């Protein structure tokens, strides 16, 4: 494709989606995540600290000629450290009509092109639409996963997002707004379930609205909430509170973006019970009569079954 203008991105999305519905992509069976592959990699930069970039991501950045990055949520330290030699383009404020020809033309000129997303590209990254638009123009693409900000937040909080008898489920979600209608906002439903750790992306500006809705829905105002601003960055800040008081605290701190909101008892890491995984019976194996299954397999089976 030599024309400067790409196909209409929505046509590309529709047509690539239709193709996927009809036939699975062979690459699914030929490659695993982390493999070196042909095309433009969509790399997860991780939450911010350059040390939280994957080895695969680092190698790709070191070889890149063009890095199109996701602006302020990709730490400039990481760009300086790994992509000093590459042309850097900030994707913020650019639409698909501009980004796709930029990446396509560089790739067709033989450049190593990396699309760098914050955290993991598969979580609120809008990566697939760029990949579909590129694929539609004959440019192969693939994902290289990254550490999503919820995982950095749980590490900062020194807790697990799942904890036996406290939280068996994790919801990655966002509040109502331009993208979600009030009916599509399920934060209250997740909190209602009780044993869910709710991780809210893209909701820093809406903490008060979100908490007000939870209070209106009669959720316990004492339910723990943590807001982690810039998890893993040098200016990381952790605000701990509850549904009843977190909005005041976040407003006092002045944060309107770049934070993850975590709701649920797992925030405190208190009140859980030991798991079955390291219980006595788990180490005996699932069926002591045949003794064929290794301890490792037995543990995996039992952890999965728990
Ligand atoms: C467009 S989403 C991208 C999420 C990203 N793909 C990920 O996996 O973390 C941006 C939102 O992610 C969250 N976020 C990203 N990086 C963060 C960080 N280092 N600390 C806290 N929240 C972060 C914030 O909620 C922010 O509004």
Automatic annotation (TrEMBL):
Chain segments carrying region Disordered: 1-39, 283-306
Domain of life: Archaea
Domain Tetrapyrrole methylase: 40-246
UniProt KW keywords: Cobalamin biosynthesis, Methyltransferase, S-adenosyl-L-methionine, Transferase
Residue ranges with Basic and acidic residues bias: 16-34
Biased composition (Polar residues): 289-306
CDD domains the UniProt entry points to: Precorrin-4_C11-MT
Entry's Gene Ontology BP terms: cobalamin biosynthetic process; methylation
UniProt xrefs under InterPro entries: 4pyrrol_Mease (IPR000878), 4pyrrol_Methylase_sf (IPR035996), 4pyrrole_Mease_sub1 (IPR014777), 4pyrrole_Mease_sub2 (IPR014776), Cbl_synth_CobM/CibF (IPR006362), Siro_Cobalamin_biosynth (IPR050161)
Biased composition (Acidic residues): 1-15
Keyword NAD: no
Residues spanning the membrane: none
GO MF entry, a single one: precorrin-4 C11-methyltransferase activity
Record Gene3D superfamilies: Cobalt-precorrin-4 Transmethylase, Domain 1, Methyltransferase, Cobalt-precorrin-4 Transmethylase, Domain 2
Similarity comment: family membership: Belongs to the precorrin methyltransferase family.
Name assigned to this protein: Precorrin-4 C-methyltransferase
Organism: Natrinema pellirubrum (strain DSM 15624 / CIP 106293 / JCM 10476 / NCIMB 786 / 157)
